[in-house]
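dumping this here so i dont lose it again. seq + smiles for adenosine-5'-triphosphate
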Amino acid sequence: MRNDNHRIPLLEGRRVSKYFGGLAALNEVDFAVYPGEIVGLIGPNGSGKTTLFDCLSRVQDLSSGQVFFKGEEITHKKPYQVAHMGLARTFQVIRIYRKLTVLENMLLSRQWRGETLWRQLRPSHRQTEERAKELLHFLLLDRLMHEKAGNLSGGQQRLLEIGMALMPDPDLILLDEATSGINPTLIETIKDRIRALNREAKKTFLLIEHNIHFIGDLCSRVFVLNYGQKLAEGTPEEIVNNEAVIEAYFGADGGENDVE
Ligand SMILES: Nc1ncnc2c1ncn2[C@@H]1O[C@H](COP(=O)(O)OP(=O)(O)OP(=O)(O)O)[C@@H](O)[C@H]1O
Ligand SMILES: [Mg+2]
């Protein structure tokens, strides 16, 4: 789906800035993601991608600028409030409870909607368990439901994290490097599941990725950050042929970036 100015963005950032001391991790970044899109967010290491996710999911406060979700300003909301509105995210460093089972991890993820653990485990919450099992089946993890999460492979843990993000039935999912360190077969699985969630369940995605093939296969549009600023925006094809982007990745001090 293309950027369509007649529609209200699902997620919008206006002049989003974030300073850490004197460092501008984000410098007046403007962007919009429309309902039904899969948008890529790329950029060299340290360019501000995760910081942008932190600001959007309200894990970090903005230094200045505004963020809107479903047309409502969320700049000053708490993480659980935006989660409740339908915004979910995963983290670059996997956050799961390694000693709990896969299913228990899924049930715990409901906490983000403000429910207590006690309420979740009550029999009346069987529906929650059913949903968790359905999602695990969809993510090809049902076989591992009673396995300790720490015993899963890196790729399976990523899938579990996606499952946990999906538990509250969000409309928008922010994925931070969902494919990093994962074998090619599981990357295909993740790609296929994202596509199915987008087409069949109408979920919108914003993906941070270093895997340019993954971006090219899934995304209709891509934003590029460099030193906290938006360097370029376009189709994956436009982006890989953009001179400024090539320079940012492979130029003088960009040679060590882990683009794949
Ligand atoms: N909590 C923090 N305190 C101080 N500086 C930070 C903090 N978080 C991020 N930074 C700095 O902000 C800049 C952007 O970091 P960020 O993690 O957002 O980059 P990134 O694009 O996600 O990089 P990568 O591709 O390596 O994950 C970096 O210079 C980083 O060192
Ligand atoms: Mg990052």
